[in-house]
Design goal:
Length: 337
């Protein structure tokens, strides 16, 4: 089978299509003919040599978390899943025995990790991580959902966002950003989002964004947010200076959920503002498989339309990563092996 592998951790130029042996499923595994696999910034970190998870010893490395396609084979102990079933993968990998696996939520598993291997014609996955696709849902739509939408959904819940709340999403045009805007809309909340690009913001307005701020200047963004109102919740996947910004504009008692570090892995916290303002800053990673099931249902009911900017053939996977690096896209980029 063919796979788009990272053969050098130097950015998009380090992606090559390679031949690999066809995988065999273990007793509790399934093989999926991959029709679509969305990419995430997590994969780009790996490709740029900026992830502790993968180094030169692991090359060639096949990434790809968000797999959708058709089951082609199942292991001997798999029940309730047949070749021909259409599925999407929950990329969570959990130990099954720690207290969070026993009592939930599973995304807090003490040995939490993620599936990699979807940027290939066939993926070998844990059968119990497959969620069936509703009738009529195409694989490309399904592949856009897992990482970005599970993460945004969990963050909105961590921030206790509800109807009529005001939610601030710095960087509202990427995978997690667009998902946060769309899901905040489903929750009945009002949204403020930022981008460096007016054209991209315009597209996100069409997807439900209420207040778009085209700026990369933190003081300008601060002034504009303050004119609109004090956000009840901040969905922060950028980190860096955006943490201090989010904290300062947030209302008394508000919550900021943080899941990423695109703008920097270190942030300053104004301690006095935090305690006098009764503010809350929480970390958040992925969501649960049950969240994925709900999100797939929302999409099946057309209450959520996962935003896909472009699709790519497996041989053009390098172009997908270049588009992400160059901040060209709105929503998800999906490879169709
Ligand atoms: N912990 C978790 O479970 C989890 C899960 C998913 C993602 N994440 C993290 O969340 C972040 C977003 O992931 P993603 O896949 O949604 O990425 P993505 O699609 O590439 O996000 C693009 C967004 O980030 C903005 N952006 C890019 N570079 C920036 C910079 N240097 N400064 C400010 N804004 C910048 C873009 O703004 P413009 O519109 O201006 O281009 C755009 O809105 C990443 O840090 C990722 O690792 C974490
Ligand atoms: Zn566990």
């Amino acid at each position: 089978m063919r796979a788009a592998a990272f053969t050098d951790l130097i950015g998009p130029e380090g992606v090559s299509v390679i031949e690999r042996d066809d995988p065999e499923p273990g007793p509790t595994e399934a093989l999926v003919d991959v029709e679509a696999c969305a990419i995430n910034r997590h994969d780009l970190w790996i490709l740029e040599g900026d992830s502790a998870m993968v180094d030169a010893d692991d090359l060639p490395f096949v990434t790809g978390l968000d797999v959708a396609g058709v089951v082609s084979e199942t292991g001997g102990e798999v029940r309730g899943l047949e070749p021909g079933d259409r599925v999407v993968l929950c990329p969570n990998q959990t130990c099954g025995s720690c207290r969070f696996c026993r009592e939930g939520p599973e995304n807090m598993c003490e040995r939490f990790s993620l599936f990699h291997g979807g940027l290939a014609e066939t993926a070998r996955v844990r059968a119990d991580r497959l969620v069936p696709l509703p009738e009529g849902m195409d694989a490309t739509t399904a592949a856009a959902i897992p990482t970005a939408y599970m993460t945004a959904y969990h963050m909105l819940r961590r921030a206790e966002v509800g109807p009529a709340d005001l939610v601030f999403v710095p960087g509202a045009t990427g995978g997690v950003g667009v998902a946060a805007i769309q899901l905040a809309d489903v929750f009945g909340a009002e949204t403020i989002g930022t981008s460096s690009s007016e054209a991209k913001l315009e597209r996100v307005r069409e997807l439900g964004l209420d207040h778009g701020i085209r700026s990369t200047d933190l003081e300008e963004i601060r002034d504009e947010v303050e004119t609109i109102g004090a956000p009840d919740g901040v969905i922060n996947h950028l980190g860096g200076e955006f943490t201090e910004l989010g904290q300062s504009v947030m209302r008394r008692g508000g919550t900021m959920a943080i899941c990423g570090r695109t703008a920097g892995g270190e942030s300053t916290i104004d301690v006095t503002n935090l305690f006098l303002g009764h503010k809350c800053i929480v970390g958040s990673t992925m969501g649960t498989q049950d969240d994925l099931r709900r999100l797939v249902e929302l999409a099946a009911d057309s209450r959520l339309r996962p935003e896909i900017d472009r699709t790519y053939a497996l041989a053009d996977t390098d172009d997908a990563f270049a588009a992400m690096r160059d901040r060209e896209s709105v929503g998800k980029l999906v490879v169709e092996p």
